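Let us work through a complete example step by step.
Step 1: write down the sequence.
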Amino acid sequence: MERRQTADHSDRIASALSGDGPARSPLVASWSRSARLHGLDPESGHSPDRLTDTELRAVQDAMELTIRASRPSLDNLFRAVGSAGCCVMLASPDGIPVERRGITGDDADFEGCGLWTGTLWSEAREGTNGIGTCLTEKRQVTIHRNQHFLRRNTGLSCMSAPLFDPHGLVAGALDVSCAREDMNEAFAGLVAHSVSESVRRIEEELLRLWYPHARLVMLPCEDKGYGGLLAVDKDDLVIGVTQPARNALGLVAGDLSSNPRPLSDLLGLAADDGFEAAERAVLSRALARAGGNVTAAARELGISRATFHRKLGRIGN
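Step 2: predict the structure and record it as tokens.
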């Protein structure tokens, strides 16, 4: 029976990859990369490669901010899915799990199949799999059992999604994996939804940690989707956004890091960018903070009461 299952899996992949035409689905495209680009054999029996403790600590140190942003969501997600035999992992942009949540009784099984911190789950190493494939394709994926490229991974169901930093670069991946045979595709879909929601929360927290002194603005959203958050500095320039906001605004990864954009421009709001408008805004904010007290507002700005009044009169306030 084992030999028959082995042949079935290999034959299914070989059949899907036969011919020179384009891949018929994203899954087959991933199988093609696994076989043709990375030179993997579906029947490879090697154990997952693993970093040394020193190497793992170096990866974890490089991801310190992302790990901090992720921990509350990892805990909450594990509370939701752990009793169903799932483990929850945060992986690096290279597909290396750096944080993990799991039930102690299941740990030996998960460690045996490589679902552990420090193992290498890139698509180049393990073929089609949740962590590696979502990072390669930069989108959420579910790789259910025999959709994995390597036969030794076909007992797993993996629901994974990439994480993006405030500049739109891949910061890691969130994964929920299960080795139980009763994990059906319907339940996997529910878990995948929870993964998506957790990714949104992690990216929001990462934005807060990345820009602790910025003002956060929620992007208005006209449909039923989620608009995301924007980080705005003291000059009203948008300096970072969550991925939903980036998608909604059509921003390119890395653009805000080198070219912050005025909030009014991104939101399509009318704005008077002249010097007088800027001065009026400064005076108005100072007056509002002082509760209408001109003397206090002038003191805050380091000017005399008479100068404050003169400026107000000149700009028509």
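Step 3: interpret the result. Residues 289 and 297 are 7 Å apart (CA to CA).
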